[in-house]
Amino acid sequence: MISFILNEKLVSTSNNPGMSLLDFIRYEANLPGAKIGCREGDCGACTVLIGEINDGIMAYRSVTSCLFPLINAHGKHVVTIEGINLNNKLTPVQQAIADNAATQCGFCTPGFVMSFTGFCISSKEPSTQKAIEAVAGNICRCTGYKSIERAAKDIAKAVQNKDLNDPINWLIQHGFLPKYFTEIPERLKQIQPQTISEKKPDKIIAGGTDLMVQQPDSIYRQKIESAFNINLPHEIIISNCTCTISGATTVNDLLKNDKLLSRFPELDNYLMLVSSEPIRNMATIAGNLINASPIGDLSVMLLALNAQLTIINGDKTRQIPLNKLFTGYKQLAIEHEELIQLITFELPKSNATFNFEKVSKRKHLDIASVNTAMLIEIDNGIITKFRLSAGGVAPFPLYLEKTSKYIAGKHLDKGTIAKAFELIDEEISPISDIRGTAEYKRLLLKQLFKAHLQKVVGDEFYKLI
Amino acid sequence: MKNIDTVGHVTGKSVYLDDIPTIAGTLHAAVVGSEFAHAKIINININEAAKIEGVVKIILHSDIPGENQIGGIIEDEMLLAEHEVHYQGQPIAVVVAESERIARRAAHMVKVTYEELAPVTNPREAKEKSLLLIPPRTFSMGNIDEAWRKCKHIVNGTVEIGGQEHLYIETQGAYAYPMEGGYIRVHSSTQGPTAVQKTISKVLGVPMHLIEVDVVRLGGGFGGKEDQASGFAAMAALATHITGKPVKLVLPRHDDMRITGKRHPYSADFKIGLSDDLKILAYEATLYQNGGAAADLSPAILERTLFHSTGSYFIPNTRVTAYSCKTNLPPNTAFRGFGGPQGMFVIESAIAKAAEHIGVDAIDIQKANLLKENDEFQYGQRAENVNAHKCIELASNKFNLVNLKKSIENYNKNNKYSKSGLAIMPLCFGISFTNTAMNQARALVHIYQDGSVSVSTGAIEMGQGVNTKLAQITALMLGISIQRVKVHSTNTTRVANTSPTAASTGADLNGHAVRIATSALKKRLISVAAQELGCSEDELNIENETITLNGKITHLSWQNLIKKAHLKRIALTENGHYATPIIYFDKTKEKGHPFAYHVYGTGIITVTVDCLRGTYCIDDVYIVHDFGNSINSIIDLGQVEGAVVQGIGWVTMEELAFDKKGKLLSNSLSTYKVPDIFFAPKTIECIALPTEGPNLAILRSKAIGEPPFMYGIAAFFAIQNAIKSFNPKHRFKFDSPLTPEKVLMQLYSKDETDITK
Known about the structure:
Chain A folds into three domains: 2-84 and 180-229, Roll (Ubiquitin-like (UB roll)); 92-177, DNA polymerase, domain 1 (Orthogonal Bundle), CATH 1.10.150.120; 236-463, CO dehydrogenase flavoprotein, C-terminal domain (Enolase-like, domain 1). Chain A is built from 18 helices and 18 strands. Chain A has helices spanning 21-28, 92-99, 109-122, 128-134, 146-158, 167-173, 184-189, 211-214, 216-221, 251-255, 258-263, 267-272, 277-280, 285-290, 297-304, 401-407, 414-427, 438-457; strands spanning 2-6, 9-13, 47-54, 57-64, 77-79, 203-205, 224-226, 236-238, 242-246, 308-313, 316-321, 326-328, 331-332, 339-346, 352-359, 370-379, 382-391, 398-399. A five-stranded mixed beta sheet of chain A has the order 2-1-5-3-4. A five-stranded antiparallel beta sheet of chain A has the order 8-9-14-10-11. Chain B is of the alpha+beta class. Chain B has an eight-stranded mixed beta sheet. A five-stranded mixed beta sheet of chain B has the order 7-15-14-13-8. A four-stranded mixed beta sheet of chain B has the order 16-27-28-29, sandwiched between helices. In chain B, helix 6 crosses helix 7, helix 9 packs parallel to helix 10 (340-358) and helix 14 (466-478) packs parallel to helix 15 (506-533). Classes of the chains: A alpha+beta, B alpha+beta. At the A-B interface, helix 2, helix 3, helix 5 and helix 18 of A face helix 1, helix 3, helix 17 and helix 19 of B.
């Protein structure tokens, strides 16, 4: 049985654990507010909120329900647009959209309302920009977004004085949420954790953001288990010089870690380039690695950081470096039953520069044509450490070993860079596909390498090339 | 006022096709589409698929009781393929099952054996092979052959224009269910309910009066549901006809993208000749429209490309020939602008290239050739109430064009790897269906005994706010509050023989029909009031729900008047019929007066290109638009903003990719990118040109849906200009969409070709 609170109502269902939450909401619970636009997390029309108690606090995040496997809803509060509607009154979010004529055909509107509502609940420093970021995964084909931006401004203003200590009650008092939200934490506590079946599952699913796109019908039919139910630690541990992230950490969990942010001051900029808010709220770090996509954004970042993986299988544990994980296109040096438990890497030193670059057809919520990360340490003009990685230029996320090894130990000068360009060309093997021609990807990686240099030496970088 | 659907939309209570509560026992359908773009069908094996539990019926062409034909303009498109397939995704079979999941699974198990044939995807290749959907058409004026001799500058060029996926967020779909006596009611997500009704009637072989089509609203249309909804509705109705059960067919996004046609890609050659003082003396172009595998609306779209092939300019000597080429792509179809944007893109490319050749700013050529009062269009109509100059002048002043250009020059001087660019797009777009017969509409207006009013027309609400405008017109004409007015679903039983809601004419045609119906009702009511009050009719009016006598309030309220009229047995129902006057077009001469009026405007777009990465952002969009006397400025502004962003998307990131075999590679939202909130221009500022508006526009409020789309074209040329600031060796390339890939390649290309070529 999967049990959760859907809006105000406790539901228990024996439906397939791999059914999408969207299908359950629309066709089992008959709540038609969430719409089907693409079923691959790329339009946001099906956005709903997932509430759960984290460290004793009720927290909500937006997710695209099309990619959310029903099993992951267990023990949670699932909120659809029907669950935030008030009687005879619009919420300030709805009112802002109405006031600014930010809805035309209306089909995408429930998704926008839910993303904005999620922003109202969870934002710590509400600003127009943050409100806009919250709807970055919502596509509207009618308005051209300017009216939605105007609505975002009104919405951000409406939550300016939110009580950060007790946001839910404040939002109830100010008409953002119905009253029943206050009772949710107590009611959630009464839902028993799911028992893990003795029988081995066909598949273990985590965020589901790729599996639910690639094989939804097969996931629906299979016996699946949730990675979140299995005994995986769910944390980020930062010591003096190393960072350890559990595999089931979501991308947005990274952004909630102040220690990590202080070591990677631009992390939020980088992660803004990784899918969209609702997807980042679901997708896990291990999932991004296991997916083995040749342009996996986190794979590329972690390759430059020389991440080590702790892999478990029952009681057995082993370690491999990330750059030995990928063996070919969608091929991994990992067995079917193994799981990535931990990802560990050395934190960049104070004299180090880490940079991530990504170019795609659309800057946000798009798959890279080429992405690349670089870690460089310079001591007295000598490059003491250098690691360059790139996606979209090989059958798997590539650590550019030759280039990296060559640069380490050299002076940062024109000669070194010229040779590095030659080596980059030798090491990569891009193919022409929907993300661009091979010729383009070759040029683009070299351009992004220049962008890395710009990060290190500033606007004078062109003197190095 | 706001769109009347607003509260429903923001609360998620508005009902779209897939939200209609289903009847118990509803079956679900899935389409089996061709794997190949061109092939012979050797065999269709349904045995395995039919064995799956829950599969009710697998429908093939042989099950069609009527005609296997859905072509609208030309009868050249089968509902279900028989012996050959002509595009990848072409429907071959329809699986009907107890659930959508089962239907989809069984659809994958229908085994079709093919003999592959060579596909043609390039329109020029199709033309070489004489694969044309209709004979070529030529619009011309003056004496082009002589004109070349007078030209100081002559420039040739080639243009490639990409198509565009509609990406309405609600995919195509229909829900059909049986009523008594063979009558079938169909809910369809269509812009053309009559086209759906006619198509179903033909496919089932039953008279049109046994088919009822009802449409509440669409989750976006943009032209994609003008003609292409008919086939899917016909499949659902056919399944209902065969099984006797309710059947729903809603396309999964991938199927929708794969099967349905898009905006037409065009390939073109141009030759333009100018005088010393930058007057365009001659313009010749050959346009190759990539029509896809069947005619669909391509002939009409080709015609509008020709109508708009000289853009906003007066060119005394022209010859433009257009070929509608038959290729092995899904039949391309209507999309906001309906061929107009492509025609305009080619002339704007010609002007840009001429400017590059002469060494002037394209704006100087644009300004020197804008239409003036009484200028003759290539198609014979005289330009009246021309606002082309007024728009560009107002735009130049209000947005300080001189300063804008100067600040861009400065920016480019001070930045090595970031360059800015600006371009202007003058707009002139003709309003009316170019097929004269389609310019008609009807409105059925009931006044109920309690004074509430019900309006039914042929207009489809798809977000453009037509229902709000119709309610406004009704309230205004009857002198009552808009709260009394309900605009109902579009239904073929209430309003018959409708034209599709398209060509930006929805509010004009249906609005005039409402005006006519409500005028007649008002006349009858005034006559009742005159009897009641014992005065003459011309002294009376209805204002704010009260009958006024020479402007003064009487004791007679709207509600009372209605009661009295009903007791006097006065008809409180009226059917208004409107047919646009004046317009005609003679296709044998390619001359006439096809448009009721034209919409003018000027768009200015500035962009910034990241010359390290090849990415770009759209900075500012400044528009002066000729709304006429807008009856709803909120809705109209929303149309401008939405259209221009869609237009920018078309020429920048929206790239349809087909492989050589005609298979769509950009078949999902992860591979076909449309603008998101971050890509939207930083500012869109739109000023209304103060004008009276023409009589033929409803309440002098001009049509709005399509025209502003074309401002987006300026983004293409602005990016080209920015590329040139970085790479002086760059020669303008007219290859749209201008994706980040093309931008990077052009930033670093070493094109040394002669500028005059």
